[in-house]
Amino acid sequence: MPESFDMPAIGNFFREKSNSLSSAITKRLSLMRDQFDDDDEKVMKLESNVTEFNLSGMKVIVNLKEQGNKKLGRVSFFSRSNCRDCTAVRSFLRKENLNYVEINVDVYPQREKELIERTGSANVPQIFLNEKLLGGLVALNSLRNSGMLEKKLTEMLAGKCPEDAPAPPVYGFDDDDDDDEMSDEMVEIVRVLRQKLPIQDRILRMKIVKNCFAGGELVEVLIHHLDCGRKKAVEIGKNLVRRHFIHHVFGENEFEDGKHFYRFLEHEPFIPKCYNFRGSTNDNEPKDAAVLGQMLGQIMFALLESYASDDRHHLDYIGISNSEEFRRYTNLVQDLHRVNILTLSADEKLAFFLNLHNAMAIHAVIRVGHTGGMLDRRAFFSEFQYIVGGYSYSLSGLKDGILRSNRRAPFSLMRPFPSRDRRLEMAYLKVNPLIHFGLCNATRSSPAVRFFTPQSVESELRYAAREYFQRDDAMQVDLAKRTVYLNRIIKWYSADFGQEKEILKWITGYLDATKAGLLTHLMGDGGPVNVVYSSFDWSLNA
């Protein structure tokens, strides 16, 4: 390199070369146009759809658009979440690169009425070509097998889509039924209390307790407002605690008259960390926990069907964040504020917490992002929270506190819930090790993201375990080295699986025939077996 540059000279050099190149391209294009007009043989070259010409030091390729049968119409189909036939239709439309509109009646329940009016039943899938009903999966397969499908598509989609065809879902509009939700019968009393109670910081047990009031103050306000006796006012206070409008500041009792301090749910210290809280608590009558769990599951199933890879190991988080399904999900999780989880059956409870964990992990990636390893992700696991049934739950709280019987997380010195914590009422007494294959923490080494149904949650967990151990990064056997390679999840949560010998024996029941045969042979010849735990890939499953 020279020690100095003549900048003006360099600038002039590039300008001259640029002008020369532009002139050469223009001249060459002009000559080619004249040649194509005069020479029929060169025009025939267009049949290849690609014309090449060369300039000095440059090669230019012109791609001509193919003139095919352009389909102006629209393919629409009505579907439901977690429907096998709907999945088949969706896969076919994607494989054929057909633009389509999917109307999931679980996500858009008001469209079910339209489905019945157009088809005479609520069965799905139902495919429409413009405004004309094609039918379901049977009709689609019949046309495919007869070779008439392409002709049918060309004929029925040749014209522009009319206005009476099924309309695409519109982003940002809620169903009218959402406005008809009933307010809790106690909400009028709560509004009065919020206005009249002296809410302030107090000193209790040498601590400053923020935004609280005394039980006696609440009783006095109720007596004057409702013109009732003290006993009646105390009963109302207890009802407010049971409905999670208020809680004792230390969670020590339900409600008592006197100098016991309480605070409203929206004033709890954990509120700033709760991402399903939008400025105020949901004062509507709480939905039934089983119904709410089903609604959440249906929306998340729909998200996976639209924004996950076929094996569900990779998610399109940008697509999810911009979707109508996710917008509706973030609205629906506000109904968790005061839901009564204790009404759930055993299977409903297991599916509820598994699904909530996986949905929260997706929400956390979108809202707070994705960081490095386990130690770096403590904020991800602990700081991202939801209000559920009046209490805060993080990803660690759901996994380690509820599903793992309040056991310590890896590299943690403390249990998720302290003693006498009200959330311990929801914790399982015994750990089911299969939960580890149903929980996804948004990493590539974690199990595939999935959601569960209460009716089949146990069998779905067993299937998830079998699917997980088919992966090479989850389990491999090397006979020559007498070594079994396992994912580090097994090591981190060894307290849930047992000793190494017990783990290997337990895993055998979830392996395919090849891996099970290798492991059984290795364990049965009496020789030593080495167990090596593979490194964990913490990169995002995107």
How would you describe what is shown here?
This protein has 20 helices and 15 strands. The protein has helices at 7-38, 40-43, 84-95, 111-119, 137-146, 149-156, 187-196, 215-226, 230-242, 289-307, 317-321, 324-332, 346-368, 378-382, 395-403, 457-469, 488-492, 494-497, 500-508, 513-524, and strands at residues 50-55, 58-63, 75-79, 100-104, 126-129, 132-135, 200-204, 207-214, 246-248, 261-264, 385-388, 391-394, 475-478, 483-487, 530-534. The strands form 5 sheets. Strands 4-3-5-6 form a 4-stranded mixed sheet, sandwiched between helices. The chain has a 4-stranded antiparallel sheet with strand order 7-8-10-9. It is an alpha+beta fold and 542 residues long. Helices cover 41% and strands 13% of the residues. The longest helix has 32 residues, at 7-38. A hairpin with a 2-residue loop joins strand 11 (385-388) and strand 12 (391-394).
State the oligomer: single chain
Sheet with the most strands: spatial strand order: 4-3-5-6
What is the number of helical segments per DSSP (H or I, 4+ residues)?
20
Outline the biggest β-sheet.
4 strands, mixed
**Mean of all residue-level pLDDT scores:** 88
Q: Give the percentage of residues in beta strands.
A: 5-15%
Number of E-state strands: 15
Structure at a glance:
This protein is an alpha+beta fold.
